[in-house]
Design brief:
Length: 229
C-alpha cells in the first residue's frame, strides 16, 4: 500500500472514530481532500481508495488537474478565497464554492453557472474570529448573503464554512468551532434545507467534529507537506 493510501485509511478511521465519540451516526461527516499544490497523481491515488471530493484553491491549477483527471467522477470544491474576476471560472469548473463572502459575488456566479450542470453548491464563509485581512463575512452578514443565494437561479445554499484563527490553544479553536456551529444552527432555522457545516483541517478536525462539523477539509495529514516553491 502506498503512503497516501495508508494516510487516507488512517484519516478516514479517525474521522469515523470522532463521529462515534460525538454520538453521531456513521457517515455523518464528509471528507474533502485539500489537494492544492499536490500533483494529479496523488489525487489519482486517493480516487483509487474511494475518495471523490477534492478541494483546490486556485483556478488555473484546478483546471489543469481537472483535464488530467476527467472521467473519474470527482466532485471539485473551490476552497480558496473567491475573487470577483474569477466568478465565471468558479461557476463553470466547480461543483461547490466554499468561500462566498460578499453580496457582489452572488449575481455573477448565478449568471455564469451553466444550467446543464445543475445548481452550484455554495457555502457562506464567515470570518469567525474577526481576523483582519482574512476572507469571510461577519456574523451579521450571513443571513443577507444566504437570502441572496437562495433567490439566485443556478445556486444552491448548502451551509457555512469557517477557518478559525490558528491558535496553539485547542480550547480556543474548539470555542470558535462552537460559535460557528451556533451560527449554523441559526441559519438553518431560517433555511431548513441546508445541511453542511464545513470546518476542521489537519490539525483540528476531531475538535471540529465534536462541535458539529459535517464536512472537514484535510490536506497535509493526507498528502504530507505541500511542495512550496
Ligand atoms: C489548504 C486548506 C485546507 C487544508 O489544510 P491542511 O492544514 O493542510 O489540512 C483546508 N481548508 C482550506 C480553505 C485550505 O486552503
Amino acid at each position: 500500500m502506498d503512503l497516501h493510501a495508508k494516510a487516507y485509511r488512517g484519516i478516514t478511521s479517525r474521522i469515523e472514530a470522532a463521529v462515534r465519540v460525538a454520538g453521531r451516526p456513521p457517515g455523518d461527516v464528509t471528507l474533502v481532500a485539500a489537494s492544492k499544490m499536490q500533483p494529479a497523481a496523488a489525487i489519482r491515488g486517493l480516487v483509487a481508495e474511494g475518495q471523490r471530493r477534492f478541494g483546490e484553491n486556485r483556478i488555473q491549477e484546478a483546471l489543469a488537474k481537472q483535464r488530467d483527471l476527467a472521467g473519474l467522477g470527482i466532485e471539485w470544491h473551490l476552497i480558496g478565497p473567491l475573487q470577483s474576476n474569477k466568478c465565471r471560472d468558479a461557476a463553470e469548473l466547480f461543483d461547490w464554492v466554499q468561500g462566498l463572502d460578499r453580496l457582489k459575488l452572488v449575481e455573477p456566479l448565478s449568471r455564469r453557472r451553466p444550467r446543464a450542470r445543475g445548481p452550484l453548491n455554495v457555502l457562506v464563509e464567515v470570518n469567525i474570529d474577526a481576523e483582519p485581512g482574512k476572507a469571510g463575512c461577519t456574523p451579521t452578514e450571513i443571513e443577507p448573503l444566504a437570502s441572496a443565494i437562495v433567490s439566485a437561479p443556478g445556486l444552491r445554499l448548502r451551509g457555512l464554512m469557517a477557518i478559525p484563527r490558528p491558535s496553539p490553544e485547542p480550547a480556543e479553536r474548539r470555542e470558535a468551532f462552537a460559535r460557528t456551529r451556533a451560527l449554523f444552527d441559526a441559519l438553518r432555522a431560517a433555511h431548513p434545507g441546508i445541511d453542511t457545516l464545513s470546518m476542521g483541517m489537519s490539525d483540528d478536525f476531531e475538535l471540529a467534529i465534536a462541535e458539529g462539523a459535517t464536512m472537514v477539509r484535510i490536506g497535509t495529514a493526507l498528502f504530507g507537506p505541500r511542495d512550496h516553491r
